Please model this.
Amino acid sequence: MNVLLHVCCAPCAVKCVEALRSEGIEPHGFWYNPNIHPFTEYQNRKKALDAYAAAAGMKLAQGGGYGLRPFIESVWPAREDRCAACYRIRLDAAAQYAAQNGFDTFTTTLLISPYQNHELIRRVGEQAAKRYGVSFLPRDFRPLFREGQHTARAMGLYMQKYCGCVFSEEERYANKKSGGA
Model:
């Protein structure tokens, strides 16, 4: 199986890559995350992924650069449903890259996060796969999340504090201000 792994960040990649390799699958990483804001956060996450990919011996492709304006345009004015649009943007890019570069399957590290909507990711991934003539591998990596975070910290990888988009950053600070987690 020739698998393209859309990677949202290095900490989420660690255990996804290990799990796939334990099944005899050698994933090829794909970085495409126009949702990440601000630019310094985008750079920090990309730099951490580059370092992780080199250390892990994982091939890594980049599918575009910083994309705040196109991301905002794609989720506005329905920003309350932004996650669906965000999944669609990233998984469409991954499916298209997979189809154009000889991969028969793709998946995403988003599937390790207990904070993401797995059913929606699966549906969006399957729709993208159908559009581009590849298959989507819907793995539930969530049981590996905490261990992956611990391993990423031990490796000294950059650990982000929010999902990535400007709206999730806003919610993080609003939650802190109101005394939330």
Summary: The chain has one domain: 3-177.
